[in-house]
Specification:
Ubiquitin-like (UB roll); 335 residues; 3 domains; 3-stranded antiparallel β-sheet; 7 strands; 49% helix
């Protein structure tokens, strides 16, 4: 970015800062472009959003307030408009739509949304007693909810087990302020398999770099996965269960390769029956996946592992094999 004063390129700096929000103070990493000639710091709309999201996310995490992607998915789940959802919940006409765009709900409204977030029965009751929507529309919505309740009871046991095993937690700093999405994780694996055909060690690092890079750009992860500092670098929690899942679903093939001298590795190969589905990602997430693939396309498993060992996120957590706070993303060295 060029300085509006000197016209010269400015340096992007990251400095510790704090900001008050709703009478509480939160520490965050402040991004800004520094102009040497004027000794001033400038930001863009995107950087302002990144800075504010860091604060909003901490507030949401502290007070158990739903995140925008949860609020959006809740409405889409029932196929109603944002204004209709506001009507059903008894909010102001534009409130729900504003929450989807990032406005932080009041704690009272947040508690109400949180109550129905994982409970179709509670939402069904709200629709059942609502007199502000047309009768035909109300009955149609009730039928949909009943169908969803039945479907969720019959859900893929393997996916539900995997979700509980690797990410059954509320959004927070160890999930990139997102709920775990097995679908996104699986498609990320398919993407990197199709583009790079990596070994397992490399796949773990690719997933980690993608989630953490996206967090550095937006204050959110892509998948909601939690990562730990393994001997060979950052890895998703219970990554073998995750890889078994995509293998059993025929999303990828995994072959064993013998390199001699006792060295054996497992490589991901594309499965002909599975086509990568970009529709589960937004364009910015796709851009990050491509950026990570391009950055590490010439690296073998040992090289990308060694690069991850130079990251502060691994260095400070490896001794205790700790889970890694996504805020380490602001100190990534290799991407």
């Amino acid at each position: 970015m060029k300085s509006p004063i000197s016209g010269k390129e400015m340096t992007l700096k990251v400095e510790p800062s704090s900001l008050d929000f709703r009478k509480e103070s939160f520490k965050y990493s402040h991004f800004g472009y520094y102009c040497e000639e004027s000794d001033q710091v400038f930001t863009t709309t995107d950087i302002d959003e990144l800075n504010l999201n860091q604060v909003y996310n901490q507030y949401r995490d502290k007070h158990n307030i739903p995140f925008p992607d949860e609020i959006i998915q809740l409405r889409k789940k029932y196929g109603v408009s944002a204004s209709k959802m506001s009507l059903i919940l008894g909010f102001g006409p534009h409130s729900y739509g504003n929450y989807e765009k990032g406005e932080v709900p009041s704690r009272a409204n947040a508690n109400f949304i949180q109550t129905i977030l994982n409970d179709n029965h509670s939402f069904r009751h709200l629709v059942f007693i609502n007199n502000d929507i047309k009768e035909a529309e109300r009955l149609k919505l009730l039928k949909l909810i009943d169908r969803l309740i039945k479907q969720e009871n019959q859900n893929d046991f393997e996916e539900r087990y995997l979700t509980r095993a690797i990410g059954d937690r509320l959004p927070g700093p160890y999930s990139g302020y997102r709920r775990i999405s097995i679908q996104k994780l699986a498609e990320m694996i398919v993407f990197f398999t199709n583009t790079l055909r990596p070994h397992k060690t490399a796949m773990n690092k690719l997933l980690w770099y993608a989630d953490f890079l996206y967090f550095r750009l937006t204050s959110f992860s892509i998948s909601g996965a939690t990562y730990m500092a393994h001997n060979h670098g950052p890895v998703p929690l219970r990554f073998n269960a995750l890889f078994d899942y995509v293998l059993n679903k025929n999303y990828v093939d995994i072959i064993t390769e013998d390199y001699g001298n006792g060295y054996i590795g497992e490589r991901f190969l594309p499965c002909p029956s599975k086509i990568f589905n970009p529709d589960v990602f937004n364009q910015a997430e796709i851009d990050v996946l491509n950026r990570v693939a391009e950055k590490f396309k010439e690296c073998n498993a040992t090289q990308i592992r060694n690069k991850s060992h130079e990251e502060k996120a691994w260095i400070e957590n490896e001794k205790e094999k700790s889970i890694i706070d996504y805020r380490y993303s602001f100190e990534l060295k290799h991407i």
